[in-house]
């Protein structure tokens, strides 16, 4: 199998580095300061398909995905809501796990969190200082970018270090030796969570966390490092600099695999921009198979626009696959049977070529047509159906009958949940409880949280 490597700008074969044959996959996860959106689902599904395919081809994968559970946005949101940062993070992490389960995304083997690895991060920073790659300044610790080397530093993002310096912004509160240097450790501010360190109370910088967590869970070198294209610079660029300086081993990651953005309108779907559709909102109107099918109809390196009509088309496509996979056999079957081996070969060729899910899906839809034609002609379609179900499973499609009831009723359920919230705000508790009990009797669970009420079918 070949994957496009952002660092070398070309495809190369994926062969596990370790002698045990296990492919080590690290994917940058979410910062759980608010509800996850469909862009997060897109990334999760891309790497879920990669993992499923590698497992299917006989290459075992150890998959690690982190949670950034200490961050400026988390601190700010928790303070505005009047709750502990850890409570906000825990709630959104639990919601994220539930949503990924609904989307049939396999759970990662490990989910390290920044707050659980602060001692390891401190030791990592101490090692960089000892090697001359970092320095303490006013309670902060910064990484010396020029010590790592300009050409090496700009290799992943294809940027010249002099251009980076000319465009660098210097915060007057930072005490850097060079504008390009970045923070490994931040001195504590009043009211913020902090930890003890040799440089005083503080917390980790953003970039150091993933280097430390990858080292802790997967070792000094990993096979594939994944994430969104927006992380190429500065996050992944800084990860390379930190990790290779600390371990002395190159490369830190054999392959850098980046998925393109999901767009809403002309901009990427983003929490910070506020233009998003949450995973819950998408699942309220479409099945998990429809959402997954929509997200993999485009190659992972091409931007994809979120549009209701595209989701409706994916819904119809998922239904076609399901109907073909479970269609009744003809009463009298003739030979030869409809065979799925040619489809299997096309599927493998597509997936081996940089995870080309659009071409893999095209092969499945062609097999669907063959199944339907074969059934009309009285041929045995069972071998082809088995192949269709198997290959759909590699893509994470369940081909299950969608629960249309909650999807069609979603606007009315939203209205009732909103009414209940207004009744609670007016302290009309009895009426609010009556609405909730009515929804519960219909199989709808309402969950109240610091950012409002959400519902799901149970």
Sheet with the most strands: spatial strand order: 4-3-9-10
What count of helical segments does DSSP give?
17
**Which band does the percent of strand residues land in?**
5-15%
Q: Based on DSSP secondary structure assignment, what is the total number of beta strands?
A: 15
- Overall geometric form: flat
Question: Describe it for me?
Answer:
With 458 residues, this protein is of the alpha/beta class. The protein is 48% helix and 15% strand. The protein has 17 helices and 15 strands. It has helices at residues 38-56, 72-81, 85-102, 118-130, 145-148, 150-153, 161-167, 206-218, 232-247, 279-285, 288-296, 308-325, 341-352, 357-376, 382-394, 404-425, 429-441; strands at 2-5, 10-13, 23-27, 61-65, 134-137, 140-143, 182-187, 202-204, 222-228, 253-259, 262-264, 267-268, 304-305, 444-449, 452-457. The strands form five sheets. A four-stranded parallel beta sheet has the order 4-3-9-10, sandwiched between helices. Strands 5-6-7-8 form a four-stranded antiparallel beta sheet. Strand 1 (2-5) and strand 2 (10-13) form a beta hairpin. Helix 16 packs antiparallel against helix 17. It is flat, with a radius of gyration of 25 Å. The mean pLDDT is 92.
Element layout with pairings:
Blueprint (H helix, E strand, L loop, with lengths): L1 E4 L4 E4 L9 E5 L10 H19 L4 E5 L6 H10 L3 H18 L15 H13 L3 E4 L2 E4 L1 H4 L1 H4 L7 H7 L14 E6 L14 E3 L1 H13 L3 E7 L3 H16 L5 E7 L2 E3 L2 E2 L10 H7 L2 H9 L7 E2 L2 H18 L15 H12 L4 H20 L5 H13 L9 H22 L3 H13 L2 E6 L2 E6 L1
Parallel strand pairs: 3-4, 3-9, 9-10, 11-13
Antiparallel strand pairs: 1-2, 5-6, 6-7, 7-8, 11-12, 14-15
Helix pairs in contact: 2-3, 4-8, 8-9, 11-12, 12-14, 13-14, 14-15, 16-17
